[in-house]
Amino acid sequence: MxxxxxxxxxxxxxxxxxxxAAQCASYLCDGEPxxxxxxxxxxxxxxxxxxxxxVSDGYCESLAAYREISRYLARHDALLLHSAVIEVxxxxxxxxARSGTGKSTHIRLWKRVLGDCxxxxxxxxxxxxxxxxxxxxxxxxxWAGKEGWQRNVxxxxxxxxxxxxxxxxxxxxxxxEEAALELLGQxxxxxxxxxxxxxxxxxxxxxxxxxxxxxxxxxxxxxxxVACRALLENKE
Length: 236
What we know:
Blueprint: E1 2-6, E2 9-14, H1 19-23, E3 35-38, H2 41-50, H3 57-73, E4 78-80, E5 84-88, E6 91-96, H4 103-114, E7 118-122, E8 127-130, E9 136-139, E10 154-165, E11 170-173, H5 176-184, H6 193-209, E12 211-217, H7 221-232
Parallel strand pairs: 2-3, 6-10, 10-12
Antiparallel strand pairs: 1-2, 4-8, 5-6, 5-7, 8-9, 9-10, 11-12
Helix pairs in contact: 2-3, 4-7, 5-6
């Protein structure tokens, strides 16, 4: 049994394998849990069957636990957005793309261009939660991709950037309609009608409240420079 704080909510997790305890070490807390996550053998088996390649039961238990956490968060103004999030000057920028498009590469390029001004919030599966005033906050989570890039922080989300491979580097505004289509495949919608409806409503709110861009990019530092100029100008 362990207790962790994710997106400002305390969860108690009943677990069998040590994997999740090690993974969540920097998120441990002593608060009163709002929800208890119980992972069954059937849930572990489902994750194993859906996985690509050979994975351990402990790894699958961790995935199942995060799925349950995300389902609970859908009822508390929060959703999982498959993306890589960085913090620059106290604001968060989320880069979203289909797997293999280069989110990790692009973050490395930002680090090269801006150095320590860039701090990673989460490399793969952050939580976006709305404050009472409607501001979306990007939270780090223990579920952070193969690199394990994450910090236990919450940062106001300024922009969502859709990454696409290109022969030249250019960044363009993205319409709300285009953003909805792009991001629909990057969120965890939930398993019940209520969870799905809540998540779709939050996606609409998210799209309406942040700067939306599409970046056609090469795997070079110039891609980061082009994005930096567009996203950070007059926002420092």
